[in-house]
Amino acid sequence: MVFAIVLLSLLLLIVFITYFKINAFLSFLIVSILAGVALGIPLTAIPTTVEKGIAGIMGSLTLIIVLGAMLGKLIAETGAAEKIAGVMVRLFGIKNLQWGMAFTGFVVGIPLFYGVGFVLLVPLIFSIVYKYKLSAVYIGLPMLAALSVTHGFIPPHPSPVALAILFEADMGLTLIYGLVIAVPAIIVGGPLFGKTLGHIKTSQSEVFQPTESTVQDSLHHAPTTWNSFITALLPVALLILFTVLPYIVPPSNTFAHELISFLGSPAIVMLLAIAYATYSLGLRQRRSMKSIMSIYGEAVKDIAMILLIIAGSGVFKQVMEESGVSLQLAESLQTLPVHPFILAWLITAVIRGCVGSATVAALTAAGVLLPLLKSSGVDPNLMVLAIGAGSLMFSHVNDAGFWMFKEYLGLTVKDTLRSWSVMEALVAIVGLIGVLGLSFVI
């Protein structure tokens, strides 16, 4: 009976989001309260459970996501991302444009949220399409595959950050493992698969006619190439540095290890990156502090709903824990003849196919899979990535990314399914294979 309630709760969540079009945060909140009542949590305790669920996940998460959004917004608004993209295209040349576009999407996608990166890079895709008379799908898919993979696998994106905190994973190790898995996933889903799609035709909308950048004007200098790259990749470099340093510094040097632990905290890393970006892309480029703060304010507005959705998922997780269902579910799941990583990937993939949102799918699955992680003893960093890979599977007509790809590139639904949807499936499968491969050597 208990498991039937959990299953019905997940189905109700899916129906609320997909059929009734109820906001994901409200859906999480309503379903969590109903599930709490059905699972026997006292009515007087439910408000406290809701508060604990939100506080438990948002306490350590809010800073990272907000600061990450600020950094990404500044990189986009100042033209740094455009500068990175242009350099990558020139570096790889016409013959290897697909690889250049994939690498560009990867570099730009690390600091930028998916939606921002998508809108920013699509004009670049079409400028190349018009210049070299190539298929927009052939050129664009590798870049957008890279954006999608970074969104699912790599901090500081909301889903992997939230999962790492939920599963008490090491953010630096999750990032390093994520980078290892992301590269083959991008290669397979991007340039290799993209070569088979050169025949797909797209509409040639005048909206995407190449135009001069609006970033450079009489008031603001455009950032240099080195400045753009260093600022965009600084959080990644710092997280990797402070993950490796403890293995280099002698254990006897207690103060150094404490300092490394403090500076290596994801929130401190993001704060350092924001401080540097404020100078390098802001004040140094003759932007006023007021205009920089305005950009940061807009960034917070952009990700407010993401934060609320994550908060809602925390409530669902708390209900599962306090009702005792989590322990029972873990015991039952352990009896299945399926590897925990495969099971995590499969559950997340099914939810993604039903609700459309990769973030919602990952966080919904996390509430169910958390007890399995604790009881099975598998690597929490790899569990984060297994769920991240599953969250990219089954992208179709209920996914906003599906429609963005279709509408921006002017495709039919059929062509979007055989390009975008297949690409998402490929990166999800390669991601799972990468997780399983790493589990044998870690």
TrEMBL record:
It is found in: Cell membrane. It comes from Sphingobacterium wenxiniae. PANTHER family: GNT FAMILY GLUCONATE TRANSPORTER, HIGH-AFFINITY GLUCONATE TRANSPORTER. Keywords: Cell membrane, Membrane, Transmembrane, Transmembrane helix, Transport. InterPro entries: Glcn_transporter. The chain crosses the membrane at residues 27-46, 53-76, 96-129, 136-154, 174-194, 229-248, 260-282, 303-320, 340-370, 382-405, 417-441. Pfam families: GntP_permease (PF02447). GO terms for cellular component: plasma membrane. It is a multi-pass membrane protein. The lineage of its organism: Bacteria, Pseudomonadati, Bacteroidota, Sphingobacteriia, Sphingobacteriales. GO terms for molecular function: gluconate transmembrane transporter activity. Belongs to the GntP permease family. This is Gnt-I system high-affinity gluconate transporter.
